[in-house]
Amino acid sequence: MDTLKSIFAWLGRFLEKTRIVFLNIGTALVLILLTIGFFSLWSAGPAPIDKEGKVVILDPSFLIVDEESFSSEFPIFAENVEQITFREFDYLIEQLKSDNEIAAVLIDFSSTGFAGPTTAINVAEKLKSLKDSGKEIIAFSTYFDTTTLMMAAYADEIWAHSGGAFTINGVGGYRQYSKQLYENLKFTVHDFSQGDFKSAAESLTQTQMSDEDRKQRTDILIPIWNKFKAIISEGRDIDIQTIQNFADNNFTISNQATFENLSFATDNGFIDGYKSYPEFRSYMIEKFGEDQTADRLTYPNISFIEFMETYDMETSSDSNKIAVVTVEGTIMRGEIEPGIAGADGIARLIRKAHESSDVKAVVMRVNSGGGTVLGSEIIRDELLETQKKGLPIVVSMGDVAASGGVYIATPADYIFAQSTTITGSIGVAYAFPTLENTFEYIGINTDGVTTSKYAGWDISQPIDEAHAKLINADAAKTYQRFVDLVAESRDKTSDYIYSIASGRVWTGTKALELGLIDEIGQINDAIEKAAELADLDMYEVKYYKKEISPEQQLILDILDEFNVNLGVKSKYTDLIPFFEILSRTISEFEPTPLYNCTSCDVKIN
Question: What span, in angstroms and rounded, lies between the C-alpha atoms of 393 and 322?
Answer without folding.
Answer: 10
